[in-house]
Design a protein that fits this description.
The protein is an alpha+beta fold. Helices cover 37% and strands 28% of the residues. Helix 1 (15-23) runs antiparallel to helix 2 and helix 1 (15-23) runs antiparallel to helix 3. The radius of gyration is 16 Å and the shape is globular.
Length: 196
């Protein structure tokens, strides 16, 4: 499974690739045809902790692995990983919480706005798992992240754990998508290759 836009490929790490990342990030990137590049040590440590958590979530519900893994955001031109995005598993009420990050040198280019739109489309178009709501939490001072959510039609519903709580419902997504896409010929390519 790969999601493609005009500038990006959004590629999920398989469970095995998540494990490989813990010891060989560049090797995991090569397996998906990407270049990992260099990142500060503290970012690497945060990713390792996050990936260990994702492995536990996948083990609890292997069928829904695409809603727990880390999706790599890859530039279609340079093949460099420019960010990552993903969910934190599926809640029993049909809600998935979205998380994302853009590498510092690739911020303010609209990359995450584009990636959030595509990962939400993927979630809401699934037949096997009916996703009713995509949510996200942002720090009150993270205006860039809030702009990404606003640009994708998310609505702030309040606060949770000291963070701003944003949601987009399935019906709102499709209403917004229809409105955005009228007359612009925009489409997303899907590639169902998977090596879970």
């Amino acid at each position: 499974m790969r999601l493609r836009t005009s500038r990006l490929e959004i590629i999920p790490f398989s469970r095995r690739q998540l494990e490989l990342f813990l010891t060989d990030p560049a090797g995991a990137a090569r397996e998906i045809g990407a270049i990992y590049g260099t990142v500060p040590f503290e970012v690497m440590e945060t990713q390792r902790n996050l990936y260990a958590m994702k492995l536990r979530i996948i083990d609890m519900n292997p069928e829904a692995w695409l809603f727990a893994t880390a999706w790599q955001i890859v530039s279609r031109y340079s093949r460099l990983i420019v960010g990552e995005i993903g969910f934190k598993g599926i809640h029993p009420n049909g809600e998935v919480e979205l998380g994302y990050s853009t590498r510092h040198e690739h911020r303010c280019r609209g990359i995450m706005t584009e990636a959030v739109k595509e990962i939400c489309r993927f979630a809401f178009e699934q037949d096997k798992f009916i996703i009713k709501t995509v949510s996200a939490l942002t720090r009150p001072d993270n205006l860039a992240s809030e702009a990404v959510l606003k640009n994708n039609g998310f609505v702030k519903k309040g606060t949770l754990f000291g963070k701003n709580y944003w949601i987009m419902t399935r019906s709102d997504f499709f209403a917004n998508a229809k409105q955005r896409n009228q007359g612009n010929g925009e489409h997303t390519e899907y590639d169902s290759e998977s090596d879970r």
